[in-house]
């Protein structure tokens, strides 16, 4: 049973990696990069956040131990370049929803890994957010755009809420699995509402 | 006595963190970010330099151990969004002078921490400079601007001078406190002169 | 004999550092930076890739142990600012060819160091590529340009080929030196062909 759940989490993690890689592929296509540029942008988007988290908490980057993540990125980049027309045939909300699912898992996994390296709850929330958004931020910096996650519909905000729900549930004595479910449901509810209602936080300007 | 000085340094360090965070808030306001973008930009500016220094010398990032820095950033971001009109009512040199004070301390703290991890004097100077300028450089990269510190009035230069004064004073046998004072006075004198006289190094162009 | 080869590799490594630093100097000149900006951009370009590699594999950044690299960068920045007209008097292919030689060595050194820290062959190739291209990518991000290496004539591609040739040769039982030569010759052949024929991979666009 426990083993089944671990496999499910691992599978979702690889799924999230593929979805994040795909968003890098789409950006590379807009910038007319060659195949290698596509792979680099896919990799940076998919594993950039987790890599920064691992460096900060003192872990060896996860993809150095397990190269499956790199193969998923290579496969996504290859498929993404072949099937360039596919995204246009899918309903518009397909990619945002898949991204939300990957994001929810990345945030929980990031917060969990930080806690297992002995951080406080507050730092675990920060690490969850970094896992979720830093890859996309580097992708946008490479593409010379002001990072979308700093402006887009309740994106980083949803990560913060997800991280607080996760560490808060653990603090209340819930097990890892219920805490994970509560956090992911909360984050997904927020992101899905924002996607379909185009909700944004009020912006602050001088 | 020694304890008092340590408290003073810690207080100045938190003050510098708040000032650097505020410069991130002001940039976020110019880019019309939402509250989360404001917090991210404030955090990157305030603790980015020290974080890179810690990763390079093999230390655990300082804010993972002591989350007071994160609370100072949150508080500054919150206050900064409430008091958007305040900066305009202060004399124009208020923020640059506060920034110079924070900078002077960041450089000395960065160089000192590097030395305590066994680096050479030259690397300690580099780490002092990174502590002082890297956060602002990442802030500018996120905002799609060529980093100001690479162009502005004797900014990185002042950090180098401060770092050399600090390690040089220690090398001459002075204690940590006199070395710190000499370095900070030198750096502040240079920055304050540059601020009021609008001094810049000659630029190099092809 | 072995000692001679080690000296040769070290000399080529410093030569590559100087060449990469020079490309940072040229970029700084185009951006009209001051002397410190020139040094920062030279340093980021020359040691940025190796530094990221070292952080990822858990090594102490190489220039913290051996500050010769920093002195080479300082010297190159100084000379580069004095001799601004020199590049225009050299044949146009001088700098690209020198860069290709530095690149070939950086890739091999990066892959070798990763293997010596116990990574798999695939990760070693990734580390070779990072050593070769990450410095230039940060340089371009600081200069607000979409990284050239993601778009330019078979640049990152040549690094991947070089990395695969190196790890593949070792896997086939060849010694470190023949593997190194095969890898460098392959990478150089690819880069030199691309430079003179202006070859590029087909770009991918949406």
Automatic annotation (TrEMBL), chains A, B, C:
The membrane spanning regions, by residue number, are 7-29, 35-56, 68-86, 92-111, 123-142, 154-174
Cite the entry's keywords alphabetically. Answer: Cell membrane, Membrane, Transmembrane, Transmembrane helix
Q: Pfam families from the xrefs?
A: Gly_transporter (PF03458)
Q: How does it sit in the membrane?
A: Multi-pass membrane protein
What compartments host this protein? Cell membrane
- InterPro entries from the UniProt entry: Gly_transporter
**Boundaries of every Glycine transporter domain copy:** 12-84, 97-167
Family that this chain belongs to = Belongs to the UPF0126 family.
Q: What is this protein called?
A: Trimeric intracellular cation channel family protein
